[in-house]
Amino acid sequence: EQLSNMIAAGEVVERPSGIIKELVENSIDAKATQISISAEQGGILSLSVVDNGTGMDAQDALLAFERHATSKIKESNDLWNIHTMGFRGEALPSIASVSHVRLRTNDGKEGTEVEIKYGKLDHASPIGTPRGTSIEVKNLFQKTPARFKHLKTPQYEFSLISDVVQKFALSHPEIAFTLHHDGKLTFRSSGSGSLREVIMQIYGREVAKSAISLQGKDQDYTIAGYAVQPQYNRATKYYMLLFINGRMVRSYRLQKAVADAYAPYLPKDRYPITVVNVSMDAQLVDVNVHPSKWEIRLSKEKQLERLLFDTVKQALETQIS
Ligand code: ADP
Ligand code: MG
C-alpha cells in the first residue's frame, strides 16, 4: 500500500509544480472561486494551496488520503464520462507519501485538521478554519533522496509553478488566482471571467489588445478563445495553449492544426500565441491515458483538427486584410 503510493508519486508528483497542479485541480473540482497558491524557495521548502470551495467533513478529510478514495467516480463506467479534473484518487495519498501534508478543511458544518507525515497519520482533530480547504506541503522528498536530487534550483522550480498557475488562470478566467513566492505576490487574476483580461495580465496590454476572438462550432465541438495577431509570434510552441473541457492538454496534432492556420502569416519556425478552449461531450474524450492527465485520446480527432484549422484561419483572414 505504502509502496504503491510511492510508485504513483513518481508519476504524479515529480516536482512542486506537479503537486500544485493536482491541488489546484482539486480546488477547481470543489467549485472554488478563489484559489491562493504560495511557494517558498520554488516550493522545495514548502507550498500551499488555499481555496474557498466546498470543503470536506471530517470523515472525507481522512478518506482523501486513502488510495483510490476518489469521491468523483461512482462506478467504473464513469471513467469514460469524466467532468471533473481529478478522478484517479491518487494525488493526495501520493503527495502525502513523500512529504508532510497538513490539510485544513471546513465544509460549512465542521472544521478538521489532518496531518500526514510520509504516509503516516500524525493527527486528525477538529479545528476552527474558514470554509474551504487549505493544504500545505513541506519537507518534500526528504525521505526519498533519489527524487530530491532531481529538483532543480528554486528559481527554476518556481518558473514551472508560475507557468502552471498562469495556465489555470487562462483556462478559468472566472476563478480569482493569486500566486506568492517567498512572501511576494507574483501573479493575480481577478476572476472577472474575462479571458482577454487574463491574457493582458500574462502577456501584456499590446498582445491582449491584438487578440482576435475565436468562435467555432460543429455538431460535436465548440471552440472559443483568442488568437493573438501574428506579429506577436514566439519561437516556441509553448504559447499555444489548448484546453479541452477546461483541462489543459498537449496534443501534437491539434496544436499543429492551429500552427498550420497561422502558417501563411508567420515566418518558418515561429509559433503563435493562442488560447483555445474546446468543449465537447465528455464521452468523446478519454483523459485516462496517463496519470499526469496531460495526454488525451479523442474519438473524432480528425474532425476537431479540421474545425480548429478552419476557425483560426477564418479569424485571421477576416482580421488581417
Ligand atoms: P481525485 O481528485 O482524483 O478524486 P485526489 O487524491 O486528488 O483524488 O483527492 C481525493 C479526494 O479528496 C477528492 O476526490 C475529494 O473528494 C477530496 N478533496 C481533495 N482536495 C479537495 C479540496 N480542495 N476541496 C474539497 N475536497 C477535496
Ligand atoms: Mg485530484
UniProtKB/TrEMBL annotation:
Residues 199-317 form the DNA mismatch repair protein S5 domain. It comes from the Bacteria. Belongs to the DNA mismatch repair MutL/HexB family. This protein is involved in the repair of mismatches in DNA. It is required for dam-dependent methyl-directed DNA mismatch repair. May act as a 'molecular matchmaker', a protein that promotes the formation of a stable complex between two or more DNA-binding proteins in an ATP-dependent manner without itself being part of a final effector complex. This is DNA mismatch repair protein MutL. The gene is mutL. The chain holds residues 9 to 329 of 653 of the full protein.
